[in-house]
């Protein structure tokens, strides 16, 4: 990967505050994200950690009570004639984003296919809508393309399905339609916000394979928001672990899974039930995610962290670099910190995972 | 597992035989949600029911606790038949000794009642205390048992986080000292780190009180972790049942195999190469209605025809 990669999305120091009746909630606190062409970045975190809000900001579809208090979201794309262009999404008004970005260059797949489809419009119309609106595609051509898209996402009898309504399809089928709609305008970036959380495991596996296939054939970039580390292992090239509105660890997928450094990542990995061992108790992260209404000094994860140091209560840890791509925000990586190793159970599990992986090779 | 000894000699706590649950939609159309399902739950063990949505797993739980009237079949709980019309005693026994924990902790707690009153409601209905001090005492000890503090009793559900609310749901089920708790997808609405906490709590409670669980879920890795025995359900048919080792080490039915292979493992190098086994009922050529129970080994049963059984077992 020596050649310069083309950067699609560059988020720097993003800061978002929500006005609520209980007071301001500082939901996003200095988030940086990088995404290069053709790659998949996963954002992992619990609910309320701000992973969806970050991506909504990139789409310019934040709720009306949200204020962006700082940062840039730079998005690069090519015009139809091939000339490159980089814009800061936060500087553009909603109308401009709606016309030039949403659906056309950045498309989104939402969690719940039951609510993200219009129940009063047939499938075909919903797929064609974007093409007709953005490119003024003639109706006949749009129809043909829509049929093709349905075939691409693995729906049989595409012509027949075009005239059907969302309620006539199963959950997995609906999510395929949502993906077809997202792909309709040939976007450069696909944001998948928990695309499989509402689906069963068997269907989840199929949808993930579909998204991977689409990405390979079209060479688009994908941002995958999820809380399921198993899904992340399957799809992602890079992983960002988010906690309380901050990215606490980021790195290439192998670095996060085989060499995690942040205690929160340790906790997330250990809390997954392991199919290969018969532990009597599951490892848990004590406590619950913090309420961002009451901001406290220091590391937000400190109260739940059994490896917390004294300094954690006073100052927020900066990002420490571990390798070219691997960063973690924990004081444990400071040269002055005592040497702390990851929990024993997790280390044996990672050892076993590595052994298993050897059989598969690269 | 300590429970395996119990399964061989003890009487089953719950015996379900040939349970059918149909819902009549119109004069021409009936939804057959549960079709001829039989299984046993022994005292103190956890039986996990897995299957995709629409497979009828929640319906089974609701039929057993008699939120629905079963169309056919026998449900024997603790020696009493509870499948037909319930007389007063059977009803009382059922309502006290069997409890349910629901999926969505936000929706299953009355937002206008205090936590203490939600937990104490069963005590009030069955008049199970002599003085209000005793009631107070019972509620407080339960709050402590599920990891909440006594002053939480005077708060309202909206003041709690999701994990805490599910703890309230568990406390409410426990206050009657039930012999069987039906946990219907009780962790799927919670965050990963909180799921582990709730599952650990449920395990601790089982050790302390000896209650049996019917654990309904679609997350197989959690089911494997908590269950002693597992039943795999698809389209209302119980396709395969056995101890968790029997199911996970030696799955026989193609549907079980596809279900097991669909679980993503947190191991990127392996996961990137692996393709899940897919299974489609329509094209598989299997007709669930023709299947009968076949013994594989021990307590491991598969529902299929003789022909299919030979084919699957010899491969």
Topology:
The complex is a heterodimer of chains A (362) and B (315).
Chain A lengths: L6 E14 L2 E14 L3 E5 L6 H9 L6 E13 L5 E5 L5 H7 L5 E4 L3 H4 L6 H13 L3 H14 L5 H5 L8 H13 L5 E5 L7 H18 L2 E6 L2 H7 L2 E6 L2 E7 H6 L4 H9 L48 E2 L5 E2 L15 H15 L4
Parallel strand pairs in A: 3-8, 3-9, 6-7, 7-8
Antiparallel strand pairs in A: 1-2, 1-4, 4-5, 9-10, 10-12, 11-12
Chain B lengths: L2 H7 L4 E11 L5 E12 L4 E5 L6 H8 L7 E6 L2 E2 L6 H10 E4 L13 H12 L5 H14 L16 H13 L5 E5 L7 H18 L2 E6 L2 H7 L2 E6 L2 E7 H6 L4 H8 L6 H6 L7 H4 L7 E6 L2 E5 L1 H9 L1
Parallel strand pairs in B: 3-8, 3-9, 6-7, 7-8
Antiparallel strand pairs in B: 1-2, 1-4, 4-5, 9-10, 10-12, 11-12
Helix pairs in contact in B: 4-5, 4-6, 6-7
List keywords for this structure.
heterodimer, A: 362 residues, Rossmann fold, 2 domains, 4-stranded antiparallel β-sheet, 12 strands, 23% strand, B: 315 residues, 8-stranded mixed β-sheet, 24% strand, disordered N terminus
Quick structural summary:
The complex is a heterodimer of chains A (362) and B (315). Chain A has 362 residues and is α/β, with parallel strands linked by helices.
């Amino acid at each position: 990967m020596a050649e310069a990669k083309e950067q699609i999305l560059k988020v720097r120091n993003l800061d978002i505050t929500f006005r609520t009746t209980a007071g301001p909630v500082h939901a996003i606190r200095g988030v940086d994200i990088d995404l290069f062409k053709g790659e998949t970045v996963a954002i992992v975190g619990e609910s309320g950690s701000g992973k969806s809000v970050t991506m909504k900001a990139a789409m310019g579809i934040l709720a009306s009570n949200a204020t962006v208090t700082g940062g840039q979201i730079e998005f690069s794309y090519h015009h139809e004639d091939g000339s490159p262009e980089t814009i800061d999404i936060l500087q553009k008004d909603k109308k401009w984003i709606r016309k030039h970005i949403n659906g056309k260059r950045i498309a989104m797949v939402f969690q719940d296919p039951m609510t993200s489809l219009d129940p009063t419009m047939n499938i075909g119309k919903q797929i064609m809508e974007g093409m007709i609106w953005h490119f003024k595609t003639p109706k006949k051509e749009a129809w043909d393309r829509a049929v093709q898209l349905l075939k691409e996402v693995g729906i049989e009898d595409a012509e027949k399905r075009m005239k059907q309504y969302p309620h006539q399809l199963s959950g997995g089928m609906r999510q395929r339609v949502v993906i077809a709609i997202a792909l309709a305008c040939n976007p450069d970036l696909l944001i998948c916000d928990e695309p499989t959380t509402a689906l069963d495991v068997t269907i989840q596996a199929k949808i993930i394979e579909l998204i991977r296939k689409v990405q390979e054939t079209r060479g688009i970039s994908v941002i995958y928001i999820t809380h399921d580390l198993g899904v992340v292992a399957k799809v992602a090239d890079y992983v960002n672990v988010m906690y309380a509105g901050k990215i606490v660890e980021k790195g290439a997928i192998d670095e996060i899974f085989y060499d995690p450094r942040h205690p929160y990542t340790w906790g997330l990995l250990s809390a997954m039930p392991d199919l290969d061992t018969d532990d009597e108790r599951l490892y848990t992260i004590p406590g619950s995610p913090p309420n961002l209404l009451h901001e406290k000094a220091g590391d937000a994860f400190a109260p739940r962290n059994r490896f917390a140091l004294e300094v954690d209560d006073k100052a927020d840890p900066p990002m420490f670099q571990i390798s070219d791509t691997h960063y973690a925000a924990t004081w444990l990586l400071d040269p002055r910190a005592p040497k702390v190793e990851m929990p024993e159970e997790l280390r044996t599990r990672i050892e076993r995972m590595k052994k298993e992986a050897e059989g598969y090779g690269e | 597992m300590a429970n395996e000894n119990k399964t061989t000699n003890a009487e089953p706590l719950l015996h379900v035989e040939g349970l059918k649950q149909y819902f009549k939609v119109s004069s021409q159309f009936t939804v057959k949600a549960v079709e001829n399902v039989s299984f046993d739950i022994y005292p103190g063990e956890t039986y996990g029911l897995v299957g995709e949505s629409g497979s009828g797993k929640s319906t089974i739980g609701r039929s057993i606790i008699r939120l629905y009237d079963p169309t056919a079949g026998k449900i024997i709980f603790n020696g009493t038949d509870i499948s037909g019309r319930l007389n007063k005693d059977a009803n009382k026994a059922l309502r006290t000794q069997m409890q349910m924990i629901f999926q969505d902790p936000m929706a299953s707690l009355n937002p206008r009642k205090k936590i203490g009153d939600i937990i104490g409601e069963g005590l009030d209905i069955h008049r199970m205390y002599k003085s209000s001090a005793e009631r107070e005492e019972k509620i407080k000890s339960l709050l402590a048992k599920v990891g909440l503090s006594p002053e939480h009793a005077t708060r309202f559900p909206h003041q709690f986080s999701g994990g805490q609310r599910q703890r309230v749901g568990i406390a409410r089920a426990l206050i009657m000292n039930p012999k069987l708790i039906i946990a219907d997808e009780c962790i799927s609405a919670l965050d990963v780190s909180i799921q582990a906490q709730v599952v650990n709590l449920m395990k601790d409670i089982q050790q302390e009180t000896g209650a049996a669980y019917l654990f309904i879920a679609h997350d197989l890795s959690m089911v494997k972790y908590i269950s002693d025995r597992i039943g795999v359900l698809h389209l209302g048919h119980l396709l395969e049942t056995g101890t968790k080792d029997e199911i996970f080490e030696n799955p026989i039915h193609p549907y079980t195999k596809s279900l097991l292979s669909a679980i993503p493992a947190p191991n990127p190098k392996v996961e990137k190469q692996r393709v899940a086994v897919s299974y489609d009922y329509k094209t598989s050529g299997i007709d669930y209605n023709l299947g009968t129970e076949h013994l594989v080994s021990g307590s491991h049963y598969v529902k299929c025809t003789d022909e299919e059984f030979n084919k699957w077992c010899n491969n």
